[in-house]
Amino acid sequence: MLWDLGTGKIVQTLETQSPVTISEVSQDGRYITTADGSTVKFWDANHFGLVKSYYMPCNVESASLKPNHGNKFIAGDEDMWVHVFDFHTGEKIVATRVTMHGPVHPVCFSLGGESYAPGFEDGTIRIWQAGSRNHEWNDSEHPNGLSGRVKVEVTGKIESGLHISREGERDKATNA
């Protein structure tokens, strides 16, 4: 269901097969992205019609559409994979398994689309470079199409404070 934040009233109900685990309005305001079960859907944000629906090779916890041209989207799953797909065809471009932090719950692109952040069950958020700034993924930097460099890693729980380690270095310091 979609609500009007000003009035608190339901505006529209979007039909899905499974409970929705995430919904996101694209930065340009054109699409609403939802993830439910093994499906990622893109809805017209003005008329609420279904624009695209893709069956995923996994149970999807979250999905995010790349800003600007919206030609890619990312999806995080319960099996600790972060997937990158082509928005227009639904074809998988790359998949990266992240084994040390647990299932991937939220995923989100930065405002400019040059990086994205998956969040993990253990409270870790990793911010990865998505490639060059020309709206294309830079396949030359890493065999799986990602730069492979962590810009910032945030660990800890919000209620206990945050610890930020730079350039992929993991500090064993505890939060106060």
Summary of the model, kept short:
The chain is mainly β.
How does the helix and strand content classify structurally?
mainly beta
CATH class identity: Mainly Beta
Oligomer state equals single chain
Please tally the β strands and state the result.
15
Secondary-structure arrangement, i.e. CATH architecture: 7 Propeller
CATH superfamily: YVTN repeat-like/Quinoprotein amine dehydrogenase
As residue ranges, the low-confidence spans are 132-151, 154-176
Side-by-side strand order of the widest sheet: 11-12-13-14-15
Biggest sheet, in brief?
5 strands, antiparallel
**Tell me, what's the shape?**
globular
How many domains? The number is 1
Helix content class:
under 10%
Provide structural commentary.
It holds the Pfam family WD40. One of its GO terms (molecular function) is RNA binding. One of its GO terms (cellular component) is SMN complex. With 176 residues, the chain is mainly β. It has a single domain (2-166), classed as YVTN repeat-like/Quinoprotein amine dehydrogenase (Methylamine Dehydrogenase, Chain H, 7 Propeller). 0% of the residues lie in helices and 45% in strands. The protein has no helices and 15 strands. It has strands spanning 2-3, 10-12, 20-25, 31-36, 39-44, 50-55, 60-65, 72-77, 81-86, 92-97, 104-109, 115-120, 125-129, 150-155, 163-166. The chain has a five-stranded antiparallel β-sheet, with no helix packed on it. A four-stranded antiparallel β-sheet has the order 3-4-5-6, with no helix packed on it. A hairpin with a 5-residue loop joins strand 5 (39-44) and strand 6. It is globular, with a radius of gyration of 17 Å. The termini are far apart. The model is unreliable at 132-151 and 154-176 (pLDDT under 50).
